[in-house]
Amino acid sequence: MSEEIKKEAPAKVKVTIDGITIEVNPGTTIMDAARMIGEEVAPPAMCYYSKLEDTGGKCRSCLVEVAAGSTADPRPMPKLVASCRTGVMDGMVVKNFSSERVIDARNGVVEFLLINHPLDCPVCDQAGECYLQDFTYNHGKEYSRYKFVKRTFIKEDIGPYIQLHMTRCIMCYRCVFVADQITEKRVHGILDRGDRAAISTYISRAIDNDFSGNMIDVCPVGALTDKTFRFKNRVWFTKPVDAHRNCENPKCCGKATLWLRGEEVYRVTSRRDKWGEVQSFDGKPGWICNTCRFEKKKTSDWVVEGLTTIPRHSVIGANKYKKLVVPNDPLQEVMKGVQPKLLMDIHSISEVNNPAIDLSTIMGPSNSNDFKKAGQHEVPYDETIQFGTRSDKEVEE
After folding, report:
1. What would the pLDDT profile of 256-294 be if each residue is shown by its tens digit?
2. Burial class, 218, CB count within 10 angstroms (exposed 0-12 / middle 13-18 / buried 19+)
3. Which domains does the chain have, with CATH numbers?
């Protein structure tokens, strides 16, 4: 009997990103290595999606500077590289936010992405959770140098659930990959070339696959939106909660996020991780079917688990924390326990108002009939007097 040959695990390689060193497996991309460190060094991504195969390398948002290629060859790479497509090597040194070249390049990428993108955030359903908005605020400029007519497309109906706004599309290809890899038959893709390239269906066919709604979740902009949620509410006015149900579709994970306004379910989406991607359950991406997404719009259809964890910097997370931690107020310590509201009680110091009159007992706004200026006759305090309704003659008497 032949002995089994035990394969040794490949030795890990060290890579340094913005001064932080980490050991990763060979073949790991710079993007994934940076995400292992944390958000403070992770490059932005508009086309890369770790849950999908062959994504990345199209938007150039994740460009980084390789200051040292490896220990064997420490020479820097002459050009900026896409971190989502470049594998790490032992001893590699990468500059991300610490590189002026990278910051300048991303400013240019934002400017190119916004050349044909309509600035219709006030009417876009993606506003508040748009990654192009975040990318623009972090790396964009206050003005645009582009003064020409923007590229526009004729609106096209691609199905009963999804609204396509091709004018907003940045050609990230995410929706094409998700339809190609998780659905049985893809009926849409990229048509034409150059500035005429567009997302469209073949021979004007409608997208009716059971998992087509996941195209909405992977879209980083407002090019693909939910028709059932269209113009109904803003995401920061809704409350996201985690919920699950026993879905009849075996390919559906049945775990989703419900976006509530009161007790009404306005929309249903897949759960997302901190990178804006669909969460994984049991090692598989948690895609949900169209039945869970579009047809189960009652809380009775779901088992609500609790409030969804939202980052504090997100506009969606406003006033939606499980426990609001109030920061320490140094004013009370300075005043030695005295309530700060007493700072407004200046009667005894200014001698302008009558200290015998309680402002809270005045019916309506106070006026000159309720108080006398300093040096004049003091207003006698009488509970029977209806403050705010006396005449000057009554006060003098």
Report:
1. 999 998 888 999 999 999 899 999 998 889 999 999 999
2. buried
3. 13-106 (3.10.20.740), 121-226 (3.30.70.20), 235-317 (no CATH), 331-397 (no CATH)
